[in-house]
Amino acid sequence: MKHIITISLSLLLISSLNAQWYNNWRDHFSYRNCEHIAESDNYIIGATETGLIIYNYLTGETKKISTVSGLNDVGISAIASVGDDTFIIGYETGNIDLYSINNVYNIPDLKNKSLQGSKKINHFKIHEGKVYCSTNFGILVINIEKKEISDTYYLGLNSSNLIINQCEIVNNSIYAATERGLLRADLDDPLIAYYQSWSDIGSSSLEHVTIKSFQNDLVTIFEPTTNNYSILYGNEDNWSSIKTTRNYKNIGITDNELILSETNLITKYDSNFNVVESIKEYDSSEVDPQTINLNEAYYSEDKHFYFIVDKNHGIVVKDDQDEEFILPDGPYSNNAFDLHFSPHGLYTVAGALTTDYNNTNTYAEYSFYQNGQWNYYKNKIKDEMSLWRDLIRICSDPTDESIVYMSSWGGGIFVVQNGKIINQFNQFNSALTNIFPNGNQNYVRVGGIATDSEGNVWMSNSEVENGIVIRDHNDTTKWHQFSYETLNNLHSVKQILIAKNDFLWIIIPNTTRRGLLVINPNGTLTDQADDQYRGPVSKGSETDNRNVGQLKIWDESLNEITNNVYCITEDKNGYIWLGTDNGVVVYYRPWAIFSDDYPIASRIKIPRNDGSNLADYLLENENITCITVDGANRKWIGTQNSGLFLVSDDGVTSYETFNIDNSPLPSNYINDIAIDPNSGEVFIATSKGIVSYKGKATEGHEDLNTIYAYPNPVREDFSGEITITGLVKDSNVKITTASGKLVYETRSLGGRAYWNGRNLSGEKVKSGVYIAYISSEDGSEVQTTKILIVR
């Protein structure tokens, strides 16, 4: 067997499959859970929900492709080879791509068609230059040569929608496995598109999920009861049972053998349905788990090995003596609930919460991105006492850049150093408390976590008497339990923000105490006696004398804007930005939250500029899920339904809008955003995985002692922007000729400025040496650097 990519060569795999930039985007999808597979003469292709793994038999090259690099959708539901190393790809949305290596042709007609019900494409059958697409409403016929839809068959009663799971063509008959049994029609019937041309066959009108031709007869699978599959062999007059299983995945057919795939078992049958071979696990001890967990499998008679698409290992190629695992670099899964950039790299956690803030029981999982490579941790312990689950928040240790803390909605706190768990704190070894006094650690719920200016770790502790717990920085064996009446026995706390002045801003969701709570530690961070707080509960409704008054999100007219807060952040001016179910609001005087009777939360007005003198509030009809500040103090805003927005530092000017229709975003639901402070790369966690965008703003430097420009020299074939880096925030940049004539000026985006190589009139400058004069905003620092341009 030819070696494709072995476990021992995993480092080569990672380096060859690092994310590539495509039009300022790159994907960071997981390709682990492969779902479908197809083979042509020179390629095998495995399809995940978000992209393709492509292996070239001739060169041994493996690559990946997604919406970032050419595909037109996510949610791949079917794939097949149509010849000449071309593949047809179907999506849950009804979208269709024809993919020939390095080229994608889109057929969006079905996706764009107004049609009631699901348009999902379930299967492709290739026959005489046509593709018969089984869909959730009928059969679609595509002419491959013309690359267009040529016909549609509606097989439901009175030509209504009917779910077609698969088609098969034998001689001159077409068979359809549908939600109400097996149907057959003559392929050359001129009325084949009419439902009455199709006749019921088979012994059951229950849902049939598969139909295949084998040894001049048919094999079909139907569901006599839910998730219980019966496999039959025969024809429309006579059927025999092969097997009943609850774990059916698919069948593959060769000239003389049938390959039955179940969740953890591959069985090869001969033409008499005698078992020839059974495979339950992989031979390699270097993979975990070794047990097969497949979605599809088939056997190649020409190459004499199995192709397996596995939920844990991507594509697996297996023969009697060897196994090869083809898996591009990426996070463990596409579940990305929270992102965090530490000085050591990017972390993402896969835990999640229900809308009622209850557990999803996701095994503890996080992924870690550093130096262009992903690593990960996935807990597989099933022991009830040891179950680590639902990691939801991350924060850095300000005193040790190699350490981050992760909070769990059930497992307490995890300490991670250089990507590896080094400690866990729960009810047994810390001041954290379990919801059930005599229960196990699975209900130590920490919804928010943050570190203050001294390095103390603050965490919420839900549904217990002391709602805040602190791990002392000066003595890490020392813990503090804080009791604030508003937080005590509270079901859920979301995000904790500790501002530059050490005020704590806490989001309270999904309870009668919904809203914001702000705590003033009064300079004694680990002493609660002198604290003050304001929140959704009025002073007179509590006995805690530290409650100094109710806090609602009031507008200028003292009307409550909302009490549903989804996210919170502090910008470089010290303003507090909130994302709510009513758009974006800002506290411009957060330091006065305790001195003002009615602290005002302002909504940003966006002029319509249509002569009406009217304005709209920034994203007022959106549910804002996250707000992240870049190096230039601009705001990246994620939403539940409309994708991603980049606005100016004051929010008035919109620079970019990204969604599934105009960008490679796989989903318009944005869970979180994190920005690499050194490169400006913007990582976007969506409900279907992570992509990143080549942002321009980086964090400003402390001085101008390390400025330089690149590329330098600028060659005649360069068409991009020249970058000047090493700047302090808001640097003024003037570019002149060697004789001092001004040709361009701009202001830095954080630590970088950009020049397109053109003068103030928009003309390309001539060859020569140009001087960039850089000064800090207040003029206290000045530096220069030279740029050589060759035309």
Poorly predicted regions are 1-17
Shape: globular
CA-to-CA gap between the ends? Answer: 53 Å
**Biggest beta sheet attributes:** 5 strands, antiparallel
Count, helices: 2
Give the strand content: 35-45%
Mean pLDDT: 92
Radius of gyration: 30 Å
Instruction: Output the structural class.
Output: mainly beta
Q: What kind of assembly state do the chains in view correspond to? A: single chain
Tally of strands: 67
Work out the helicity level. under 10%
Describe the secondary structure blueprint for this structure.
Blueprint: H1 10-16, E1 25-28, E2 36-39, E3 43-47, E4 51-56, E5 62-66, E6 76-83, E7 86-91, E8 96-100, E9 103-107, H2 109-112, E10 121-127, E11 130-135, E12 139-143, E13 148-153, E14 164-170, E15 173-178, E16 181-186, E17 199-201, E18 208-214, E19 217-225, E20 228-234, E21 239-245, E22 248-253, E23 258-262, E24 265-269, E25 275-279, E26 294-300, E27 305-310, E28 314-318, E29 323-326, E30 338-342, E31 345-349, E32 365-370, E33 373-378, E34 391-396, E35 403-410, E36 412-417, E37 420-425, E38 444-445, E39 449-451, E40 457-460, E41 468-471, E42 479-482, E43 496-498, E44 504-508, E45 515-520, E46 532-535, E47 547-550, E48 565-570, E49 576-580, E50 583-587, E51 602-603, E52 605-607, E53 615-617, E54 624-629, E55 635-639, E56 644-647, E57 654-658, E58 670-675, E59 682-686, E60 689-693, E61 708-710, E62 722-725, E63 732-737, E64 742-747, E65 752-755, E66 768-775, E67 782-789
Parallel strand pairs: 46-47
Antiparallel strand pairs: 1-60, 2-3, 3-4, 4-5, 6-7, 7-8, 8-9, 10-11, 11-12, 12-13, 14-15, 15-16, 16-17, 18-19, 19-20, 20-21, 22-23, 23-24, 24-25, 26-27, 27-28, 28-29, 30-31, 31-32, 32-33, 34-35, 35-36, 35-38, 36-37, 39-40, 40-41, 41-42, 43-44, 44-45, 45-46, 48-49, 49-50, 50-51, 52-53, 54-55, ...
